[in-house]
């Protein structure tokens, strides 16, 4: 079952960090990605100290939405936030964060059960189980958001987000041999934030907090990245895999989580994207149907795109978490963005 | 759609017209310039191509006041150190210097074409230049739109994909499908709301470069043939497989073995642990005899 009501017998930790929970499968500390349906698929949430790579869809809309959910979750749980974008001003992204739904999940439950068609006659034992959409989430982990409303700016200023925009990247970068200067600048900024915020594992602070780092559209042409090629267009430019490796090293010794979106459809060197994937922990790929032939396919009528789990991390264990299926699709409704198992409609007569 | 984009009812920040030798896009570029001249205070046309002398002549013949032409095609890479426009000059300072009236609020930039820039410099530089042109810093007025022409057959797919990623509308000139119209183009428009529209249209351009006679080219798609003469297997049978209403009602009355039964439900909900309760419900076939059968034994 994707959702489970199993809860470990909680021995309250002395220093419990807000907005985190221990994983049910191993003892990893998890953080919500902002989309509860995504958390259920990847094993409860994103592990602290890891890098999550989201491979963007062709027009970047849905990956930007995931980034917004991630940032909104930071505001809700009080985690610190670092937001970077090379394409647009990050304050613009912050202005479009969805507002949280403050009702308790109990209300959502009753609303849904009222819609159930008729009482099940033969399968009556399953009647009390929750339907497809409802995820079981305890109250402090994973919030639901309403996309039609914008988050209150007060909530955001309380966590003091650090924004690194295209101008900062232009001004701050210095010439560098091994690495693209903008990536180097971003690394130094992240390192500074970790140390100043007390998020490093070597520092001892009274109140631990998680640092969320959201990078929008890394590797787009605005970052001086020519799709993996260097200036002579002959050799491969390995700046991006090096950056990801250095970032992962930083993450492993900090109480931080990183979400990066990369437009991998722009990288046409064979094997390059594979390198990027190996350098990150969790890799997700969003494939939207907009403007492609799949839009007209009747099997995909309800959904807006396919959601692929490319890689899940093996953290301190031999196995990664394996979801019960790998066919997922996402749909963006007016108020909500959800990731579900791909259901083929029963109306398709010729299949 | 193309009429809307040219006239400005559909907003788009960076427009790219991709043409080729067989299908030229220069006239469409000029129609954008003409339409923009009515909507903004100043239109700046940057010429980089060798063929852009035609554009220069056409614009001069139109005689529109607020179009300013900057010719950079003579000395692209500035080897002769001529002042003025070259590939690497900062366009915004050039525009600021050439500003006639200080009170201009909105500006539009038309580039003919982007191909020399893409050839002589790297694709990220071109993308960054395009992106930088649309932002209003360094320029006192707001840049409404940047329209540029690009020769698609001069560049490789990789560079083209990077430039496409930066633009919000891409119009590719394709061969005309009907003999009635002169031009045909395939438009990919990324709306601000996130919706993406892809449409192919035929259109004409008048002498003053206005867009006319827009008609959509409908794609002929192979639809799955509807099996309309699907045989109904229950049709020609000697026996009846369907149920009448009375029969349906009788069927719903039948008590199935594992259906909801109040006593069973209560026991499940009561959840009495430690007490094994047996609920026996006799069927019609069962012979429930109250007497103890062992009474007959005479021991």
Automatic annotation (TrEMBL), chain A:
CDD domains: Elp4. Its main location: cytoplasm. It holds the Pfam family PAXNEB. One of its GO terms (biological process) is tRNA wobble uridine modification. It is found in: Cytoplasm; Nucleus. Keywords: Cytoplasm, Nucleus, tRNA processing. Pathway: tRNA modification; 5-methoxycarbonylmethyl-2-thiouridine-tRNA biosynthesis. Coiled coil: none annotated. Gene3D superfamilies: P-loop containing nucleotide triphosphate hydrolases. One of its GO terms (cellular component) is elongator holoenzyme complex. The keyword Cytoplasm applies. PANTHER family: ELONGATOR COMPLEX PROTEIN 4, PAX6 NEIGHBOR PROTEIN PAXNEB. Belongs to the ELP4 family. This is Elongator complex protein 4. It comes from Crassostrea virginica.
